Amino acid sequence: MSQKPLLISDCDEVLLHMVVPFQQWLDSDKHIHFDLESGDFVDALRHKHDGTLVAREDVWPLLQSFFDTEMHRQGAIDGAVEALNELSKIADIAILTNLMDDRQVARTEQLRAVGIDFPVHCNQGGKGEALDKIVANYDPSVTVFVDDLGHQHQSVAEKNPDVWRLQMVGEPILAKHIKTNKMAHARIDLWPEAMGWIIDKLERAEPAPRMEEASEKLDPSQHA
To answer: What is the pLDDT of residues 139-153, one digit of tens each?
Structure first.
């Protein structure tokens, strides 16, 4: 008898809003303006008092500080809670999030508070290896992976090409700036619209078709 299918989902901008509450916190608490329309995360932060760019080396500590104290600001992406709980009727669910390991409990509690109560796995860098370990643990009939970042679909494709890969950018402000990665099997940014595609892959239980390898190897600098 075959195992259940498995859905592995990213968190920020797939299940929870991140950049908008981060922007609001920067504005109110740090007096920094975050231009979400710039399309460039690092060069989008400017000090409000004089308009100068926030130094690149200061951006990562700001983001870490946000996750230290402000995760309660992150609300659920429209349809995410309902979608995962509905999909859990036919599949195992796992969350694979790029946070340091010591934030696993906080992320689990944060998701549980909005109605998403599934195992949370933390990761740093490309998700291919971490996903491969999760798949090996569940031994599913088929796996679907959902993430907003294109290079994560490349990472998963290189390590486990049989996994179905759906690119989803649940934050509308970001969606128009993020390109669809060629290693994703589909790009659907709204959970209600994605449900049919996901359910079809889970119920068919067929491995994803092999896609051509990316023309360039993964850039380690993109693994943040």
So the answer is: 999 999 999 999 999
